[in-house]
Design a protein that fits this description.
Length: about 650
């Protein structure tokens, strides 16, 4: 089975269950069981391997670029296609992420090497409008550095090349081609070949050398298992297209061609090598280890832990010293005169549980935030166990979507309980808003983004049937479950508070600058964001720069640290505000930790301008649209953590003090 961790296997350190699953040789994730291969004359004959295969299929996925948010299907670029075969089925997560896996005409037989095998030839008559448009689109793909993503035995075909300090980086994709500018400057992959030197010219990689590494299985069923697939893209202008020899000058396409025909012949060579050192269960390691992020991740964890220790020390000091003294002093008061001389958080005991303004909206946010919190926790937990590894494509998104749909009940229950405790009576409005407000905003944004993708002809555009299926999941499962949760929430008695609320609100004294609402909210989001901003860089890289994300052990730790930090920062500020006799803590506690999402939005915009090379209005709008969805989800998630922590804190301190 697959269990993914970083180079130091942090997941095995933090999750002992992982190693237990790895040791179970008969346990495999659905769809990820190993496939045995053998030579053609042995296939099907070996009794030990009844499903031994000789043919190796190569599948192609969508093409994407770091300079554009718009992915495109393989066939859009007019490459050699296999139209007769049925496409493999895709799960919900793959469809939502825009993955489009198709069969290809690249077929290999195990251990049968091929030299310069011809696949197909594409001819473009530049006098014909259709052919000229196809060629222009191909050139646009090379200009924006669009990358192929090929798959062999559910494993990416990688292009490994040397980078700084003699390290080797293995990219699970390779470019269509490259471009040499009008001033002779080679862009992107054109630097790999000194023959790519003609000005204002495109060079297409029309030949690939594929090397497939295999491991002979011992102590189990006979046969071999594929452990790596590496390739090297090349460019040849084949002199004899029908009988190519893969030699000569590169295949160039002038940017401003005079006219005539352009013929591009696609070829490949395939080689097989035995590798006794790589086991099937660890065959992804060479890709993951080429990503030198482990040390930075440890720095991120240490940075976050320092913040948590600082906050924990502050909270502990308040709890053990200040609060303890306050409670002891309040409980020892004998006369009314003594009570009148006192000041601080006890004076607002008759107002601290006064229902907040816009209690309906706050309760709806809390319900949706609870739904997101549980969904995130369970998804990350399964990811840490290896169930949502990169090999199981689309599993992460599918798991999150299914969990969100099934968690409508806790959303409705939490929203109803808090709304009832706020003294609300419009229960129908509350349950309808819980079911439709936040999911509706997300779906509306997503639908607008999908319209842009449809207009651009991108493969990331969700088919109409899938949109209907998502709506059916929402209306037919999530909404009824939300209603069910709200029913049980309203049926229970309202949350009992430890102190009674006065009929007449207490006047709040003049506040100093740092105890006012806005400065506290802005300050409260800094520390939680400081815990996660390094991890955010890798997550944004994974989404927008198409890098593989596999460090779920780190992410789960950061998730726990974020929960602790949001809770402690909110409790700390809540105590200061109560001491200043300001009892409006409900919305403030939600917004204090929720403001972390504003810092996330600012960081995402900074990342767009400083790290990405995205061009074009459509790509920019898509980036901003998807970022706003993530910001809203993060706002609800962090805000709910802050409110619940503060609610627990306020209930606790007022339950241990004597009130006449």
């Amino acid at each position: 089975m697959f269990v993914f961790c970083d180079a130091r296997c942090t997941l095995r350190v933090f999750l002992l269950l992982t190693s237990t699953l790895r040791s179970a040789s008969t346990f495999y994730l659905p769809g990820l069981a190993p496939v045995s291969f053998c030579e053609k004359n042995q296939a099907g004959k070996d009794q030990g391997v009844p499903d031994c295969r000789s043919e190796i299929e190569l599948f192609v996925n969508r093409l994407d670029s770091v300079e554009s948010v718009l992915p495109y299907e393989y066939t859009v670029f007019d490459f050699c296609a296999q139209k007769s075969e049925k496409r493999p089925s895709e799960n919900l997560g793959q469809v939502l992420f825009g993955e489009r896996i198709e069969p290809s005409p690249y077929k290999f037989e195990f251990k049968k090497e091929e030299q310069c095998k011809h696949v197909c030839t594409k001819t473009y008559d530049t006098k014909k409008t259709e052919d000229r448009q196809k060629l222009e689109f191909l050139k646009k793909g090379m200009l924006l550095n669009y990358q192929h993503h090929w798959i062999v035995d559910n494993m990416p075909v990688t292009w490994c090349y040397d980078v700084e300090d003699g390290q080797k980086f293995c990219n699970p994709g390779f470019p269509i081609g490259c471009y040499v500018t009008e001033d002779g400057r080679p862009k992107d992959a054109c630097v790999v070949n000194s023959e790519f030197n003609d000005k204002d010219t495109f060079y297409i990689f029309n030949h690939v050398d594929i090397t497939i590494f295999y491991h002979v299985v011992e102590h189990e069923a006979a046969g071999s298992r594929l452990v790596a697939a590496k390739m090297e893209p090349k460019s040849f202008k084949h002199t004899h297209i029908d009988n190519p020899d893969c030699s000569g000058v590169p295949m160039d396409v002038k940017n401003k061609f005079a006219g005539g025909e352009v013929k591009i012949a696609y070829t490949y060579s395939v080689y097989f090598k035995e590798d006794k050192n790589i086991r099937w269960a660890s065959r992804w390691d060479y890709i993951l280890e080429s990503m030198p992020h482990t040390n930075i991740q440890w720095f991120s964890i240490m940075n976050s832990l320092v913040i948590v220790l600082f906050l924990s020390g502050m909270v502990a000091m308040i709890m053990l010293r200040t609060l303890h003294k306050d409670i002891a002093r309040y409980n020892q008061m004998d006369s009314i005169e003594d009570a009148q001389e006192e000041f601080g958080w006890k004076l607002v005991h008759g107002d601290v549980f006064r229902p907040p303004r816009k209690g309906m909206l706050l309760s709806v946010f809390l319900g949706s935030g609870t739904q997101i919190f549980i969904m995130t926790f369970v998804t990350l937990f399964f990811a840490c166990l290896g169930f949502l590894s990169p090999a199981n494509r689309g599993a992460l998104m599918t798991c999150a979507m299914v969990l969100w749909v099934l968690l409508g009940t806790p959303a409705g229950y939490v929203a109803a309980r808090f709304y009832k405790s706020f003294g609300g009576e419009k229960w129908k409005t509350n349950v309808l808003l819980t079911a439709f407000l936040c999911p509706g905003i997300v779906f509306a944004d997503f639908f607008v983004m999908n319209l842009i993708l449809w207009g651009e002809g991108s493969s990331a555009a969700i088919p109409f049937g899938t949109l209907v299926a998502v709506l059916a999941l929402w209306f037919c499962i999530s909404v009824p479950l939300t209603f069910l949760g709200a029913y049980f929430g309203f049926k229970k008695n309202a949350i009992e508070h430890p102190v009674r609320t006065n009929q007449i609100p207490r006047q709040i004294p003049e506040q100093s600058f740092y105890t006012k609402a806005l400065p506290g909210i802005i300050m409260g989001g800094i520390l939680p964001f400081g815990c996660i901003f390094i991890q955010l860089f890798f997550i944004l890289n994974s989404i927008w720069s198409h890098q593989m994300y596999y460090m779920f052990g780190f992410l789960f730790l950061v998730f726990i640290i974020l929960v602790i930090t949001c809770s402690e920062a909110t409790v700390l500020l809540c105590y200061f505000h109560l001491c200043a006799e300001d009892y409006h803590w409900q919305w403030r506690s939600f917004l204090t930790s929720g403001f972390t999402a504003v810092y996330f939005l600012v960081y995402a915009i900074h990342y767009f301008f400083s790290k990405l090379q995205i061009t074009g209005l459509a790509s920019t709008m898509l980036y901003l649209g998807y970022t706003l969805i993530m910001t809203l989800i993060f706002f609800l998630f962090t805000g709910t953590i802050g409110f619940v922590a503060c609610f627990w804190f306020v209930t606790k301190i007022y339950s241990v003090v004597k009130v006449d």
